Amino acid sequence: MLELNYAMISSAESFHPEQMVLLLKAAEKRLEDFLDKPYLKGVGITPVIKHYKVFSEVNEVVERHNADLIVMGSHGSDGLRELFFGSNAEKVVRNAEVPVLVVKKDRPDFQVDTFVFACDFREESLEVFREAQKIAGLFGASFRPVYINIPGDNFMSTREINEQISRFLNKAKAGLEVDIFNDYSVERGVLAYSEDVGADLIGVPTHGRKGLTHFFMGSIGEDIANHSSIPVLTFRM
């Protein structure tokens, strides 16, 4: 995704189209060099170069290529930039219809032994819970579901949490243990718990809130993807 200025794409002046062609050619060369790796031999690859915003066209590319997963790197975003703009990874997480794997650091020997999955264990999370379980199975990873208990309106007693988790696991037909972790926010709790258990991957559902709702309430999935130092896999609910 080149994210070219719209004026450059739409201008009738000859300078802009010529410059755009140069940028597209440079991107093609960069992709060609990037994909020339020994470990990609025999892997079917379809390079795609788009000149719009990453997050605005991602679902079109996913649908056209029947993709099951989006993988992207991210540098994260902090301070005012995060409040008003956010990172491309956040925007893709918010808009994508398929799971998104966000990777922050170079991981040449990436292996998932412990997969932490955090959710509220309500019925609406059943589908993504089952999907996360399947992915843990594909990796051969230990699946560690966790509930983050926080103070305030969402606080629950031990009995209430256990009853809610028990109902959820019965509907999911999952014979698993769920850890309960206390912290001051869901994001802090997920990151702290993942660090404590040595997680290699964090899974979280996301509602993909947009507009003013997102501005005032945010998205826990996006925040975790933006601030986690280990890979995060988000599931759109």
UniProtKB/TrEMBL annotation:
It holds the Pfam family Usp. Residues 16-104, 114-236 form the UspA domain. Transmembrane segments: none annotated. Belongs to the universal stress protein A family. This is Universal stress protein.
